[in-house]
Amino acid sequence: MPDIDDQLPIKTQRILFKSRIVSEPLLHFMLLGGLLFAADHYFIGRQEDPHTIIIGSGVDTEAVELFQESRGREPNEKELEALHRVWLDNEILYREGLAMQVDKGDDAIRERVIFKALSVIDASVKLPAVDDKQLDAWFEKHRDKYDEPTRYDFQEAALAGDVAEADVRAFVKELNAGAPGDAKAGLRVFKGRPVANLVQSYGEDFAKGLADMPAGKWQAMQTRNGWRAIQLDAIHDAKPAVFEEVRNVVLQDWKDDMAAQQRTAAVRALAKKYTVKYEHVTGHSE
What is the pLDDT of residue 114? Predict the structure, then answer.
């Protein structure tokens, strides 16, 4: 588990939460102490039965807001379900922490109780033995984490204000005729950007279009933020990782993965003690 100070302020914890949304598409297990939705106060007042957990529309609202801020779009059904699971896992840990009285001697701040409850679970994590054959097999299943992706060098020139497609196309003609890229626009130069970053920042259509562009020529392209003048400078081919060269990194990632799986199983086992009800939540019947 990452070494995170459990006394970080809520605002900082929410930033950490959003950074994990960016890096983990399915969010299958996110139980750091401060990964809480601001909607928690709505549910705390409705805990008449300590073994009944109600997931209401407040979770949807906050989950969608955080996801949109980090991804620039609304979560799909699978991603929203994963976010519900994040909230539910944290709620279970919070209640278990109270039951274990880990809040004693503390001010019972919610994220600290969750952090302490998860620490108790962490103490029982025991990793299995692993040899290089097993580690290599795990590496192959997760090769996308280690292979060097195709990377792109490009320039972006954005005209000021709300400009139309025709304006950008006219500007592109000037650029290809020899006008400097920063003559009328804000010029930015990007080096080594992988496809995943392009999709996140500009959109999937942009990433596909950039890959098909001829190098050294300005073109008008539509992005999430409007039309831009784009010039592809170079494409750096993908490079497959070699297990022997990244073995130590793979070993640490394997340990983290095995520990996360055990934590998940432990929390899901605790969840059997609770009745979970969904009220006005997307993708769930009431």
Answer: 81
Structure tokens at 216: 């050294």
Report pLDDT digits (tens) over 220-271: 999 988 999 999 999 999 999 999 999 999 999 999 999 989 988 998 898 8
Q: State how far the alpha carbon of 145 is from the alpha carbons of 66, 123, 246, 252, in Å.
A: 25, 28, 11, 13
Pairwise CA distance, residues 198 & 191, whole Å? 12
259 and 225, same structural domain? Answer: no
Residue 45 located in a structural domain = yes
Q: What is the CA radius of gyration of the chain?
A: 24
- In a shared domain, residues 78 and 21: yes
Distance separating alpha carbons of residues 166 and 172, to the nearest angstrom: 10
On whether residue 195 sits in a domain, the answer given is yes
Tokens of 205: 């259509």
